[in-house]
Amino acid sequence: MFKINVNNKEHSVSCTSDRILLDVLREDLRLTGTKRGCDIGVCGTCTVLIDGKVRRACKVKIGDVAEGKVLTIEGLSQV
Ligand code: FES
Fold first, then answer.
1. How far is the CA of 9 from the centre of ligand 1 (A)?
2. Which CATH number does 2-76 carry?
3. Could you give the percent of the chain with pLDDT greater than 70?
4. What dihedral do alpha carbons 55, 32, 25, 23 form, nearest 10°?
5. Mutate to test the pocket of ligand 1, among 45, 55, 72, 73 (most ligand atoms within 8 A of CB)
6. Per-residue model confidence (pLDDT) at position 73
7. Rounded CA gap, 33 and 45, in Å?
8. Are 3 and 67 in contact (CB under 8 A)?
9. pLDDT tens sequence across 20-47
10. Which letter does DSSP use for residue 57 in this model?
11. Domain boundary assignment for the chain
């Protein structure tokens, strides 16, 4: 079980540490504003901010962001 902060809201996600952040956002949290494109870190359609830094969600494992804050396009629209 991982706790993850997305758009200033805490979520608990039951998965292994190597699950890809993009899958968690789209499939578990239903935040489909983060898009799947190339799935290899090139196109940028899956871009999110993690602790204020631009990252490709298709290349980030959930275990690497468990302590961080993720901001998606849905979160940006609330700012
Ligand atoms: S899906 Fe293309 S960079 Fe992530």
1. 24
2. 3.10.20.30
3. 99
4. -90
5. 45
6. 95
7. 9
8. no
9. 999 999 999 999 999 999 999 999 999 9
10. G
11. 2-76
0.85 exceeded by pTM? yes
Atom of ligand 1 nearest to the CA of 22: 4
Burial class (CB in 10 A: 0-12, 13-18, 19+), 65: buried
Residue 23 parent element (H or E)? helix 21-23
Helix or strand holding residue 74 (H, E)? helix 73-76
The token pair at 1 is 């079980």
User: What's the mean pLDDT in 7-11?
Assistant: 96
Contact 33, 14 (CB under 8 A): no
